C-alpha cells in the first residue's frame, strides 16, 4: 500500500513513523513534509488539490491522511472523494467545527453539549456589555483559524475589552478575528481527547494533557502547544463515559442530522470542572504535540 500524508509538522512525522514499519505499507509520500520526513519517505510539493489528486492517481496511492486543519477547512477531502479517492478526514462543512469557533459553539448549544456560557458577536458594544457581566478571568476567542493562538485569557475587564477591540478591528488576527466569541472562564484541568469516527461509529483514544502556555507555571500567551504527555492520571473511566454519552454520541448524531456526517479525528478540548467534562473547543485532526506522544500507544 502507498500512502500520502498531508502536512509539514511533527504530527505528520509521527504518523509516518508509526506507518513506516507496517508490513503492508510500501511507499509513504509527504506533502510538503519537512527535514525529518524525507528519512521516512518522499517529500513532494503540490499546493493545488486537483493536481494532488492527479499525483495520487498516477502513483497508486491507496490512502491519504490529512494532518493539519487548513487543507480540511479548504475542502481537500471533498475534492478527493469526488474523484473516488480514499482520504481520512472530514469534509469542509464538517471541518467548520474547527474552522469557526462561532459555528462550533452554536452547534454545541443546539445539541445540548456542555460548554461555557458565551456570546458570539461582531459588535464591540455587545462584547463590552457581556464582558461586564463576567467575573475575570474572561476568555476572548477569534472566530477563525489562528494557528492555535486565537484564544486570549484576560485577567481583567479592561484587558478583555482591549483584546476584543484588537480582534474586531482586524489588528490581532486579520479577518479571522472580525467576529469573536466571549465566554466565561472555566476553572479546572484540561484534557485533549481524540475519537476516530466514521460518521456513525467511533473509537475513543487515551486522553492526553497538552500544555499550551508559552512560559512555566502556566504563564504567558497560548501557543499551538508547548508539549504533551500520554497517558494522564487525571482521566477516569467515569470521565470517559461522560464524554462518550454527553459529547461524542450527540456530536455524531447532530452532524449527521445537519447533513455533514463527521469522519476523521474529533479532537475534544475538555475542561474538567468538579468531575464534569465541559467542551472548550473542537479540532478536526490530531494535535501536533499530543499525537507525537500518543502514536506509541
TrEMBL record:
**What Enzyme Commission number(s) apply to this enzyme?**
6.3.4.13
Q: Which Gene3D superfamilies match?
A: 3.40.50.20, ATP-grasp fold, A domain, ATP-grasp fold, B domain
Record flagged with keyword Chaperone? no
Boundaries of each ATP-grasp domain copy?
Answer: 105-287
Keyword Cytoplasm in record: no
* Entries under NCBIfam families matching the protein: purD
Protein name (database record): Phosphoribosylamine--glycine ligase
Q: Which organism is it from?
A: sediment metagenome
Amino acid at each position: 500500500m502507498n500512502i500520502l500524508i498531508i502536512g509539514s509538522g511533527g504530527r505528520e512525522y509521527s504518523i509516518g513513523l508509526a506507518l513506516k514499519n507496517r508490513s503492508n505499507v510500501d511507499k509513504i509520500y509527504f506533502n510538503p513534509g519537512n527535514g525529518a520526513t524525507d528519512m521516512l519517505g518522499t517529500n513532494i510539493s503540490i499546493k493545488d488539490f486537483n493536481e494532488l489528486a492527479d499525483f495520487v492517481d498516477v502513483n497508486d496511492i491507496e490512502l491519504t491522511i490529512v494532518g493539519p486543519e487548513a487543507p480540511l477547512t479548504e475542502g481537500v477531502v471533498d475534492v478527493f472523494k469526488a474523484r473516488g479517492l480514499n482520504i481520512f478526514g472530514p469534509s469542509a462543512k464538517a471541518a467548520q467545527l474547527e474552522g469557526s469557533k462561532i459555528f462550533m459553539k452554536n452547534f454545541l448549544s443546539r445539541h445540548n453539549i456542555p460548554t461555557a456560557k458565551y456570546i458570539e458577536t461582531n459588535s464591540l458594544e455587545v462584547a463590552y456589555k457581556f464582558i461586564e457581566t463576567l467575573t475575570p478571568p474572561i476568555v476572548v476567542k477569534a472566530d477563525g483559524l489562528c494557528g492555535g493562538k486565537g484564544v486570549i485569557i484576560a485577567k481583567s475587564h479592561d484587558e478583555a475589552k482591549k483584546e476584543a477591540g484588537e480582534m474586531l478591528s482586524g489588528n490581532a488576527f486579520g479577518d479571522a478575528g472580525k467576529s469573536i466569541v466571549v465566554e466565561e472562564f472555566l476553572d479546572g484541568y484540561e484534557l485533549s481527547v481524540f475519537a476516530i469516527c466514521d460518521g456513525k461509529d467511533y473509537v475513543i483514544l487515551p486522553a492526553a494533557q497538552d500544555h499550551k502556555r508559552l512560559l512555566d507555571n502556566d504563564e504567558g500567551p497560548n501557543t499551538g502547544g508547548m508539549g504533551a504527555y500520554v497517558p494522564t492520571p487525571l482521566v477516569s473511566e467515569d470521565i470517559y463515559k461522560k464524554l462518550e454519552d454527553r459529547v461524542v454520541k450527540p456530536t455524531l448524531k447532530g452532524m449527521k442530522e445537519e447533513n455533514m456526517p463527521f469522519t476523521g479525528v474529533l479532537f475534544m478540548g475538555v475542561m474538567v470542572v468538579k468531575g464534569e467534562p465541559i467542551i472548550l473547543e473542537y479540532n478536526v485532526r490530531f494535535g501536533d504535540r499530543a499525537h507525537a506522544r500518543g502514536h506509541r500507544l
